[in-house]
Automatic annotation (TrEMBL), chain A:
Keyword DNA-binding listed: yes
Keywords, in A-Z order: DNA-binding, Sigma factor, Transcription, Transcription regulation
Organism: Maribacter algicola
The protein, known as: Sigma-70 family RNA polymerase sigma factor
Family in the record: Belongs to the sigma-70 factor family. ECF subfamily.
Amino acid sequence: MIQELEDSQLVKYYMNGNERAIEVLINRHNARLTGFIYSKVGDRELTEDIFQDTFMKVIRTLKRGAYNEEGKFLPWVMRIAHNLIIDHFRKSNRMPMCDGTDSFSIFSLMGDEKLNAEKQLIKEQIDTDLARMIKELPEDQQEVLEMRLYKDMSFKEISENTGVSINTALGRMRYALINLRKLVEANSIVLTN
Amino acid sequence: MEKIYQTKVNNSKVVSAKPETIKFLLDYSKSLNITEAKGIKFENILN
């Protein structure tokens, strides 16, 4: 009977394509391995997940023919489970789990970085107003402002690109902002979201 | 004589993986197919 065979023989059978052999191996070591995992993680569902991942790894390794019969089968399986448990704790330390309760919802702390529809509309409006006002500025100020704000260039780069000194570029930027403020006040535009 | 011994009750539960998990693993094993081409092993899950 296949149930009476030793682990090493069952492993060989399985590697030669006998699917029944893995069933015997899983059932034979089920309680021991589950107990081992449960003793470390203390959670029934997590134990089930790690048990499953362990045997998926076992199955893949055996099917690939990458298992070498140096040690015993069970200690090898336990070692895989042990590594997966360590992986789990490493991961949960990096990303701590936080479950909500009836009185506290984790979603009250979490925010969506995206703007809501209303704020998105306001932002688009502000962007359009600003672009229109920039167009009203003298060309040299417009150029410096666009390079600084939209292209994120330094004043050194701006001076090299426009062929003026850094001080001139700084001065143009200053006047551009002063003129923009005047335009905002004159047109009673609100530029806040 | 008064009975002072009590019967031992083992309250510890034996945990073992659920039958669904075992079935999943067996199905996974049956569907997993490894093919080798030019020294590289490819894993396929056959439905």
